[in-house]
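Quick one: HIT domain-containing protein from Carya illinoinensis, structure tokens please.
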Amino acid sequence: MREVKRVADLTADEICDLWLTAQKVGGMLECYHKASSLTFTIQDGPESGQTVPHVHIHIVPRKGGDFERNDEIYDAINEKEKELKKNLDLDQERRDRSLEEMAQEADEYRKIL
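--- reply ---
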């Protein structure tokens, strides 16, 4: 696995793997959160609101009535991104999680896999 900043930097195989993984994870999250839909988003580059400089997909489980208008999800995501950007110094390396933190997260996800 390699880290790339922009979607255009991914190979065709990586794009396929990314979306197949998003499909699988999305299905599990939808079931786990008893949701009825999913919103998938990618911010590709700083001007799009990308605050973490590598390709990743946000997968948001959705339920009926979670927003008055469905498109309000994008405003909510943008607000969270702005909040994150204020608290994240992109000129510094992000702190790697400890093995214990990663193991705990893996245990939680293992329950829904």
